[in-house]
Design a protein that fits this description.
single chain, about 130 residues, mainly alpha, about 0% strand, globular
Length: about 130
């Protein structure tokens, strides 16, 4: 399965099941979604690190309060324009941006700990499997 297919399939799964409903192994193992997306979609680790850094702030704040307050929600919503900016600069593909938007929406709509934790696991694996810039 190529990166495009993996992105599309993963996006659909997130929209249907939220992240917590997706088996961790199918996300993070060497032939899982994160690896296929990172390896076949041409996304550079540098770009992913920029996005991951913003997500990491949200994850760290969430861990302290176990909920999304105004600060965490603002940070999540601000990821939308960051992704759009990188897409407009042709640093991220449109299908990848749609996938990331689905991840953000999943976290906003289902702020349960397992769902947020699964988002962090996915992004960590995505960065790990991405090519060096």
């Amino acid at each position: 399965m190529k990166g495009n297919d993996a992105i599309r399939e993963f996006t659909d799964l997130v929209k249907k099941n939220h992240l917590a409903g997706i088996d961790l192994a199918s996300i993070v193992k060497p032939d899982g979604y994160a690896a296929r997306i990172a390896r076949n979609s041409g996304i550079k680790r540098t770009q992913l690190r920029k996005i991951f850094t913003e997500f990491k702030r949200v994850f760290d704040s969430y861990r302290k309060s176990k909920s999304f307050g105004e600060e965490e929600l603002t940070s999540l919503y601000m990821l939308f324009p960051i992704l759009e900016y990188q897409k407009n600069r042709r640093l991220l593909r449109e299908d990848f941006v749609h996938m990331m938007e689905a991840v953000i929406e999943s976290m906003i709509n289902n702020p349960a700990e397992e769902n947020v934790k699964r988002a962090e696991q996915f992004l960590t694996a995505l960065v790990a499997y991405a090519k060096e810039s």
